[in-house]
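Section 5: illustrative case.
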């Protein structure tokens, strides 16, 4: 009898522990999962894509951005909660072209689970893409959003996908897309107009990493980055020395830091220039791979682009 009672106690303890573990893991999953409210659950990576989906979807969809302001997508690693959000999504939008390099396997896995998963850079014709740093076919510069007209192509691409997957809200998506495209056309003209205020010989943009090539081609700037296309690329002593020599030779008045990149490389460049008896100013912060705080004008794509061109022109004008 004594052994039967003891056995029963052990069984009850095991069952209680198992139930507690079940509740614990259920809470973790529920806390990280997406709400069930019959809205399309959209998961996005970069802040630029998140902003776009909020503009297009309004209240028709729920948008869950994985990356916040100031987050560097090149080095971003998904958490367990991010993976659960991706797994529970109705649709996923990411940049592509290896911008979110550490998440490539995740996107492939979500596609295998039949979750619609799209790289927004698929919107861009390959003839418009700039070559990447790697010497293999299909290596391209991922920073397409810094050319407003390329971003317009992304708007059309994303809208078509939303309309196909959620035809009941097709009118909402199409209306918002048409309005937003008109705003982007105005924004493009604004950037062009402001850029022309800088004399051609002063249109040299030097930043922490080489994110602004699309911007430079679209708006007439020579662009030089201390690091490569990815912030994972480290700048060496020779890179700093060569760029410092260029700044002194061409009397470049300002260089720029980026909100999502550490400032130490640009500060080292400034010191190297000063050691050559020339003074170059840090012209301000630019938004490259991430937008600003949600409560600030730079927390939208349009506000970010305006901030960038205004900051650049103010610093580079003689």
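Designed sequence:
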């Amino acid at each position: 009898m004594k052994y039967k009672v003891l056995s029963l106690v052990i069984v009850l303890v095991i069952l209680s522990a198992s139930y507690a573990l079940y509740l614990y893991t259920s809470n973790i999953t529920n806390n990280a999962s997406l709400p069930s409210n019959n809205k399309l659950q959209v998961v996005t990576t970069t802040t630029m894509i998140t902003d776009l989906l909020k503009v297009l979807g309004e209240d028709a969809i729920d948008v869950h951005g994985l990356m916040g302001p100031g987050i560097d997508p090149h080095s971003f690693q998904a958490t367990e909660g991010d993976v659960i959000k991706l797994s529970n999504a109705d649709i996923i939008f990411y940049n592509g072209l290896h911008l979110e390099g550490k998440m490539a396997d995740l996107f492939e896995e979500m596609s295998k689970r039949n979750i619609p998963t799209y790289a927004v850079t698929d919107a861009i014709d390959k003839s418009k893409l700039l070559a990447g740093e790697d010497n293999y076919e299909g290596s391209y510069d991922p920073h397409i959003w810094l050319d407003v007209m390329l971003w317009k192509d992304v708007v059309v691409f994303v809208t078509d996908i939303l309309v196909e997957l959620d035809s009941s809200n097709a009118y909402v998506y199409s209306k918002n897309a048409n309005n937003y495209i008109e705003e982007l056309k105005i924004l493009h003209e604004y950037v062009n107009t402001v850029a022309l205020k800088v004399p051609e010989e002063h249109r040299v943009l030097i930043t922490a990493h080489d994110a602004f090539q699309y911007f430079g081609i679209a708006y007439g700037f020579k662009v030089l980055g201390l690091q490569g296309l990815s912030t994972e690329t480290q700048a060496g002593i020779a890179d700093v020395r060569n760029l410092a020599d260029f700044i002194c030779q061409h009397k470049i008045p300002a260089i720029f830091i980026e909100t999502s990149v550490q400032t130490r490389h640009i500060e080292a460049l400034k010191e190297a220039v000063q050691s050559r008896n020339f003074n170059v100013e840090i012209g301000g912060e630019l938004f490259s791979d991430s937008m600003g705080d949600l409560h600030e004008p730079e927390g939208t794509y349009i506000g970010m682009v305006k901030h960038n061109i205004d900051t650049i022109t103010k610093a580079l004008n003689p």
